[in-house]
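Internal QA ticket QA-208
Title: Verify multi-chain structure generation after dependency bump
Assignee: T.L.

Test input:
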Amino acid sequence: MSKMIVSGERSEEQSNQLVKGIYQPINRSAFLKYAGAAFATSALLMAGCKKDEDTPGVDLGSGDIGILNYAYALEQLEAAFYKQVIASPFVGMTAAEATLLTEIRDHEAIHRDFFKVALGSSAIQDLEVNFSSIDFTKRESVLKTAQALEDTGVKAYNGAGKLLVKVDYLLIAGKIVSVEARHAAAIRDLLQPNSAYFAGDDAVEPTKGLDAALTPAEILVIAGPFIKTKINASNLPK
Amino acid sequence: MNIFKIIQDIEQVDPEVYERLNSRRSAFNFLGKAAIAAAPLALGSIFQKAYGKTNDAVTDVLNFALTLEYLESEFYTMGLASTMNFGNQRAAFMQISKHETAHVALLKGALGANAVSKPTFDFTAKGNFLDVFTNLATFTTLAQAFEDTGVRAYKGQAGNLMTNKDVLTIALQIHSVEARHASFVRRYRGQKGWISGKDGGNIPAAAQAIYNGEENTTQGGATKAMYAAIYPDALVSEAFDEPLAKEDVLTIAKLFIV
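Actual output:
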């Protein structure tokens, strides 16, 4: 067994579990139960709360594991969103749009499955999502949500880099964030073609030419409305 | 080991290399370049001393980044000032140009007196791309090459910036902007916004080094079979961008440096 990303001292039993995990579908349709719900509360416990083992919700954990679980949570959200986008295409979706969105769907599913395997027994559970605010039949609703998720992913990875201790994990985050940025630019270009919007001033600070970098607490406020499962991010590094 | 070559390489990005060596080691004041070349064993420690006080590892990375940003900034400035007709894409390329120029200013500001000076660029690469500023297809081919290289270059240096969290974050914030640019330019050229396998997408053979290694699908020790068995290799490689070592990036950049 080659060295795994998260644990250098993984037992054989854990490795078996890890490999087995590949073949288990990862919350492929849990969100369907909630799509269409009039309202679903989202109670995220933000980083910054005092450390408390009894804090309810799915504990992302601490240290590098916590940050990887945080990334895993975001990838679960993105993967679930695009799965629904392709399962119920918006009215008027062109063949080119379908191809592009299907590729993004697969990239996000690959990211999600990678984190699940890499985290092994440290991985958080499958999250339930809440897409009740999205009208999947409408192009603008879908693409604007896609843009928000991709831009948020970029800001999240950019902000999480400095919280990682192990250089291998930083590299993995770097390998993924630039793909999220490529997605963000492509989605933005679908929304406003023939313009500067792919890297618009609303996303890239124009005088410095920088994307944003946000803390997990800030990101979870943004992503919170889409995640039904309670998440406890209070043990993440700050 | 070609000492002359190494020093010349450093001179490309640090024109003051001889001066640094001289001021730190008085012996070189009168022995000159030949003496430096003749002293390979001492070289490592000399560089360490020459750069140790004013140029730590973080500074080296920033100067490396600055060199690439100089290249991109001048490239877009010249392209937009040319007679090429960008049509309805002019705003998009102006946005990219604005960012690259901002990156130069940001890095120069951060480096202060330690900033390397701008090299002299030859975007024809010694006559290989004579129509770079008259043919939009050539211009955008090089634009894609520079952007995809930039993404790989920053990614490859992130680990060297872990000692300085503020600088690391800024580098990441630039890195994702380069990726946005790359995605746009690639799609403008009729390519996917992301890189499939090591396919550069209708690029000159000489530019293949920019994409070699992008086909990797083993991540953090996890093979594709472990996390993405059901997907084609090319699709899995698209989901992860790969880093490029500094020396490989400089080899590419130097094609365009006089």
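Spot checks passed. Chain B touches chain A through 61 residues (CB under 8 Å).
Status: verified.
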